[in-house]
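Risk register update: the risk of archive-format incompatibility is retired. Evidence:
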Amino acid sequence: MKVRIPSPLRSYTEQKAWVDGDGGTVDELLRDLDRQFPGMRFRVVDEQGRLRTHMKIWINQDAVRDLSTSVAPSDEITIMQALSGG
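Archived output:
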């Protein structure tokens, strides 16, 4: 499936905005991305195995927070990172 990578995480993907990933759930997909791009999963998932508060994952048009959410090969996944500042 196609996965859109946010700008702050593209240093892990050789600056690629889109990468291919595999998995039956969001968690499996993130583990596959980490296998391909070591260190990436830790930027998205915390030490307790939960999506970090500043991260969002979209499956097609639906935002999800549960890593056990199913994904299909035809889905388009977007990883978003909230930016803050003053």
